[in-house]
User: What shape does this take?
Amino acid sequence: MPDPESVFDGAVSIVVAEEHQHTTNVVFEGDNLEILPTLAEASVTLVYIDPPFNTGREQQRHVTSSVRVAEGGSTGFKGKSYERVRGELRRYDDTFDDYWTFLEPRLLEAWRLLADDGTLYLHLDYREAHYAKVLLDAIFGRDSFLNELIWAYDYGAKSKSKWPTKHDTILVYVKNPKAYYFNSDAVDREPYMAPGLVTPEKVERGKLPTDVWWHTIVSPTGKEKTGYPTQKPAGILRRIIQASSREGDVVLDFFAGSGTTGAVASALGRRFIMIDQNPEAIAVMRARLAAVDVDWRTSDNPKENE
Ligand SMILES: C[S@@+](CC[C@H](N)C(=O)[O-])C[C@H]1O[C@@H](n2cnc3c(N)ncnc32)[C@H](O)[C@@H]1O
Assistant: This one.
């Protein structure tokens, strides 16, 4: 488990060490591509991200020219084949080209920040999941692919001209396939679909979830709702965090939105780092995490930014 102060590099580590020794959770406001390089290598156990899909050309303004291209050095990056696959996919689909230009440097940062036993959960929808899978195989290495999780829900209007699309895909990659942390015993179990076919003891205990997760969306009228439009259910994050981190570990979400990751991580005794560039997301997180000890590195907190 990393020391709280060692999570941060450079200037950030000085502030944390000198002024916020008690603080273990941090929320940053800003472009994640500028903030991620200030965090220390191999310092987080779990990265969960749920990036926006429609990043579009506008986002390219944020892309630096220093995108590191995969090459030798680290085991995950398979130089030439990654270049070739990326070139082919991006030529094939302009929208995906824009999307991947935005996401790629951030995923390289995620890889750098993960500890040797760490895991990435990349939450996508059906439009981009398959391209992203091929590219992530090349970035992390095919051996590092752990799961394709399907989160299935049933809510809202249904198309009559095709099968209604009612699922998201979460791709799971580990930094080191020989050393990753995964604890299925810590995961909340679920009811058997056919309880009559198993013993009463098994019914009582429930079954281990598979890679297909039926879970309702955040109810528009329920207690969990924060008002942030893309909020994901705490139940989904709970499983992820229970399985792929231990108490005290650091969980990172750099597309944090309403702060679901931090709220669940904190409830489960993990530390968190979250980043979002939208002031509305920061406001929602402030309200949601009011009872949690957080170092707010945000524009609405000039004192702490000094
Ligand atoms: C789909 S939402 C995440 C929702 C979140 N999982 C939740 O449960 O609330 C994506 C978030 O990424 C943020 N975002 C988009 N581009 C960003 C960037 N370059 N840096 C930081 N945050 C960014 C958006 O402001 C938005 O809040």
Notes: The domain at 4-305 is CATH 3.40.50.150 (Rossmann fold). Strands lie at 25-29, 44-49, 114-125, 145-152, 167-174, 212-214, 250-253, 271-276, 294-297. The pocket of S-adenosylmethionine is lined by residues 31-32, 50-52, 62, 228, 230-232, 255, 257-258, 260, 275-278, 281 (CB under 6 Å). The CA atoms of residues 238 and 264 lie 6 Å apart.
